[in-house]
């Protein structure tokens, strides 16, 4: 962009210098002649004042004439000499400089002679810039003593409209000029990037007949002379569509967007008869001219008087077929280039049309979506990537500040997964992982996104993926966790933007170039599961989604939501503030309610492997039909991922993988690996359903209530929690510094208790494993030591002691019997351990097989001694005595527990119990 601006300034400065030289040289003669007349008048006046020679001069007019002629010839000779000197500097270097400048800013067919390029379809796609000048002929300076010719070119695309005026005898020259320029345009760019519209007030056909082969490929349209308003309406609609669908990132023109040209130029050629248009047509033409250049609409106006408030280059053709133009000024005579060979023009147009047809009929592949060079584009203003092709032309999906989020709909089998792979692959190939981060979540039962994380068969992973969630159809909380993470990230970026006094991510990246501010695209497949029930999860998801959808746009956070049947979502469609943010709509075959119904039913008859891409909130004028290539087969996305994985930055970590069908392993958990010996150890109970994959934690401080209860009937769930808790505690104590007492009071729990005992012993710790017969002794002994410590008896030193009891309620009957000596029961000892143990470094981790059984172990109505609990196959209403009202919404599901720490939480969390087997 900077280079183009510099070239433009150079050529403008050069032409301005040229105009000044011409004006100075040619104006010198007129100034000298005026000076001669003034001198002659002054001399005559002085003679008259002196009274000398007046009668003689008046009486001899031949003498006076001779004197005047001689003086004039002398003065004229001096003027010509001055003019030659004035021209000399420019004549020596000016023509060569102008020639070099024109060749620099008008490369290829923009300035070459036709024999070099005519008949060869162009290859330019606009990514390397657009010629700023287009040749029309050669120029010479009028009256120059040594005239030298130089090329004359005019600004066109994106820079200026063209107005051609001719006299009756030069209309043929005007037609030739227009035809030459159009051929240069359509031959420079790839076939399809320039569409020509022709309107002639005088005839239905006949204008520019050599270009008619272009009509076969849809590159030339001839309009009815009585329907100029339809052409102007079409151009106006196109301008509106570009403004609302392309110029959405604050860009002033399509040219400023940069990169490959995605919007073809529309060149409208209007032939008149030197009479003014009707008033309504004139006004509409002025609006098109004023707004068209920014949107790729170029006007060629021939013999129509116009006055437009827009850049316009005027070429005036005289009867001798020479011309003048505003580019060079009135002192330069332009010899227009001859009309291109008429026997070659149709052949050249036919070849261009053929190449266009080949592109339109070619079946695109996944490789066609990928750029020539990987990771070359910037996401500062947004991300744009092709997802398919429409008659050989790419159809893009863009996410940015004004098209922030996308909604994808299509029934099962319509190709949603294939479309998502095409979109993600196209994005990942264009943007470096520092420019783009992906968060991918799939609610349906399947592994559509599992490929993006490392696996046993394929160790590669997509470098852009930071989070991959699969098989989460029963873990709706994970969707809430993702939205909460995005909301937190959005606030972090907003705080940074506020510090730098900016409002958008693009500005923040400019102000803080050393910061890490990539665009974030979060894709949630089958997102309707988030809103499937009337519960707190739906309520939280709706609030978070509305916040992210509304405010995430300016912070570079974009949502892509996909669903089979959008019409069935509750809690979403009633939120217009959410719905209106999803301006990008993508409808797959037979999709419902994604586009604006009932006006837009384009997806109803859509063939397989196609999609409607719409950036205008689903209204029909914004439809683009894309054929989406196969992106899931062997050798497509997998090959791209392998290549990107090999190029990934060395410091880049693997994405977090959350698989709802798998049990998390304790030993591989980062929170477990980070544990070290120290005061106030932390207990890990299971994995929380969050983006970080963190553990549910309880800190065992020396404060009342730091005991843990596991509630539920299944020993497998309870064993996973108790084993994870004990092993995490063991990791925080050196061997011999803590005592672990294990008691198993249920037969079906013995295998789990025995396994934990061996694991603790292997870690070097002292372990006592007792059964039903020893539980009373264990509790009474520990209660006695705690009672003595509470009373302040000397000699009582209590080291860390952890009692892990399986099925506490299994010994309840035995514990209720009172000792004949102390009149205390085993329940009293249990309550003493629960009440006074935590303050004296003794903590109980117990499993109760039901809420009521836990209540029986506690003093009536007093539940504070159990500070943290984790419940499995228990209905929420049974837990109201132990937690907040939010527990009412809990319905048990396999391998999931509800965790609540009354000292840390305001609402309970869903937890997955650990697999405590050895690290694989």
Automatic annotation (TrEMBL):
InterPro entries recorded: FtsK/SpoIIIE/SftA, FtsK_dom, P-loop_NTPase
SUPFAM superfamilies recorded: P-loop containing nucleoside triphosphate hydrolases (SSF52540)
Domain of life: Bacteria
Gene3D superfamilies: P-loop containing nucleotide triphosphate hydrolases
GO molecular function terms attached to this record: ATP binding; DNA binding
Keywords assigned by UniProt, alphabetized: ATP-binding, Cell cycle, Cell division, Nucleotide-binding
GO biological process, one term: cell division
Pfam families given in the database record: FtsK_SpoIIIE
Matches recorded under PANTHER family: DNA TRANSLOCASE FTSK, SPORULATION PROTEIN RELATED
Protein name, UniProt field: Cell division protein, FtsK/SpoIIIE family
